[in-house]
Specification:
The chain is mostly helical. It is built from three helices and no strands. 59% of the residues lie in helices and 0% in strands. The longest helix has 18 residues.
Length: 69
């Protein structure tokens, strides 16, 4: 069973370019891989801290650069 999620087109295009020459056959397969890694990592940490403060800062800066505030 699958469901759809929406991501900004510029992010989709960046991922598409990023996975060229890798073993990933689609943007969806890469996103699923990344999400599984994030979720399994949070499970190992007891879900207390998904991202470090530095990670969170970097994510916020990237989102801001993409036009999100």
């Amino acid at each position: 069973m699958h469901t759809s999620i929406s991501i900004p087109k510029p992010l989709y295009n960046k991922i598409k370019n990023y996975i060229k020459g890798t073993g990933f056959t689609s943007v969806s397969s890469f996103v699923i891989y990344v999400l599984r890694q994030v979720i399994s990592g949070s499970h190992e940490k007891g879900r207390k801290e998904l991202f470090s403060k530095e990670d969170e800062k970097k994510i916020r800066e990237r989102l801001k650069a993409l036009g999100y505030t």
